[in-house]
Amino acid sequence: MFRTLNTTALWTITLAAAGILMISMGARQSIGLFLAPLNASTGLGIASISLAMAIGQFAWGAVQPIAGAVADRYGPGRVLFAGLVLLALGSAVTPFMNSTWGLVVSLGMLSAVGSGASSFSVLIGAAANRLPLESRGAASGIINAGGSFGQFIFAPVLQKLIQVVGWMGAMWALAAVTLAALPLVRVVAQP
Asked: What is the pTM of this model?
């Protein structure tokens, strides 16, 4: 299976895309860990916080085809960069939100749109453009595995961060990790 990824350059592109998806999906899938601490801190109630997260689920799915179309027109690098910045911004401003609509903006829109724009549709296309035809299948599998690995790693790490530095510190750490993925965009989306 991996024999088609036979050069360092092919592995570098594939692993960079997997790394971006690891962070994007890890951040997105672990957001539920913040429900109870957000509720305890803001007193908004489970229904209000769940509404913001539900809007985020919709926004994440709705933005992917749009992000793919924008990537086709303007290049995947810009879309991936903007997606990671929006995801980090949404995570960074969430601790400052104390209303339902504030959470809808931070978690429901910024984080979700950012995660959707730096997700499967753009990453697989960007990597496929740089890989030979025979390498694309194996690379797609590895990139998708990066998303699953992110979900596996981020949940326990964020849970521990919430316990050690509080939910706000964990949210800011999530924003910092997301910004740390920005250099990988250049690797995946070079012309």
From this structure: 0.92
